[in-house]
């Protein structure tokens, strides 16, 4: 997997999953732009990468605005001469149940995740089209956007929207040789520490204990590094024909999400009145309704 001469921007890459993505890209030969809102954090990430012989620079700015997106693309071009890969990873949480979520809680998450993905991808695509030799868009989604998650109206909405944008971009950008894909990782981070039944496993991992198979396989959760390989793969020439897809990755598991499809179809002459639907619901549609939220092994949840 050779990414030599490739240049990538990874937003939100001062630590956690973003840093794991950046380091894996560098390990395969790419140069990276590290992005964080904290100067010291960004500088430490760059220092770690360059000390190991990699190429990295930092752009310190909050993702969301067009101005930041332009700074990120300019940072890549100024330091390394071009841009080949945009990884939109930056994110924040403002978790609250619907009736307690404020406008500011909602807007802050949408601005970073959804608008920040849009602005960064738009600026990257402008550069890709100017260069004329394709490019890679890799947007970070979440299982919460695919399945929903309690207390995450803003986050789930943003992550679902990201996958919707990726599918549209895959169509719009195909002729230019630019791929667009989404990756939905599950890893032991500050975010997953808040899940009660996962917390003991994450604490154990911090103390050097390996995660058991039930976590790495059935839950599909591992370290940030476990989620990084798919980023480097999608950035590579080997993935030139893969676009419009949403991947789930974590621990020992890699999977593809299906695109939403009609599951049950029925027809009624003259259209469906409310009474018609009520009459046919149990027989025709009831068994096709689907669950919401992530499904975890019962033996874990019961602990």
The proportion of residues forming helix, as a percent range, comes to 40-55%
What separation lies between the terminal Cα atoms?
41 Å
Largest sheet: 8 strands, mixed
Q: Would you count the extended β strands for me?
A: 8
* Number of discrete helical segments: 11
From the helix content, strand content and strand pairing, which structural class follows? Answer: alpha/beta
**Mean pLDDT figure:** 95
SSE string, helices as H and strands as E: EHEHEHEHEHHEHHHEEHH
Compute the gyration radius: what is it?
A: 21 Å
Shape, principal axes of CA atoms:
globular
Cross-sheet strand order for the largest sheet: 3-2-1-4-5-6-7-8
Which band does the percent of strand residues land in? 5-15%
Low-confidence parts lasting 5 or more residues at pLDDT below 50? none
């Amino acid at each position: 997997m050779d990414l030599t001469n490739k240049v990538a921007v990874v937003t939100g890459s001062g630590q956690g999953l973003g840093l794991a993505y950046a380091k894996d890209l560098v390990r395969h030969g790419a140069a990276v732009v590290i992005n964080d809102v904290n100067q010291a954090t960004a500088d430490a990430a760059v220092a770690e990468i360059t000390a190991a012989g990699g190429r990295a620079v930092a752009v310190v700015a909050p993702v969301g605005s067009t101005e930041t997106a332009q700074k990120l693309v300019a940072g890549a071009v100024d330091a390394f001469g071009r841009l080949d890969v945009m990884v939109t990873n930056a994110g924040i949480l403002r978790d609250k149940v619907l009736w307690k979520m404020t406008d500011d809680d909602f807007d802050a998450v949408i601005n970073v995740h959804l608008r920040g993905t849009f602005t960064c991808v738009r600026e990257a695509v402008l550069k890709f089209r100017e260069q004329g030799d394709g490019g890679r868009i890799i947007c970070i989604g979440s299982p919460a956007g695919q399945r929903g998650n309690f207390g995450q109206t803003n986050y789930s909405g943003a992550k679902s929207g990201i996958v919707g944008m990726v599918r549209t971009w895959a169509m719009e950008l195909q002729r230019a040789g630019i791929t667009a894909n989404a990756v939905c990782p599950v890893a032991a981070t500050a975010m997953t520490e808040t899940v009660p039944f996962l917390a003991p496993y994450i604490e154990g991992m911090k103390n050097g204990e390996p995660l058991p198979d039930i976590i790495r396989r059935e839950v599909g959760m591992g370290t940030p590094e476990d989620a990084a390989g798919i980023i480097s793969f999608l950035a590579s020439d080997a993935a030139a024909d893969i676009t419009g897809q949403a991947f789930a990755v974590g621990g020992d598991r890699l999977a593809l999400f299906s695109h939403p499809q009609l599951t049950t179809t029925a027809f009624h002459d003259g259209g469906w009145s409310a009474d018609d639907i009520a009459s046919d619901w149990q027989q025709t549609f009831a068994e096709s309704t689907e669950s919401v939220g992530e499904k975890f092994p019962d033996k874990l949840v019961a602990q």
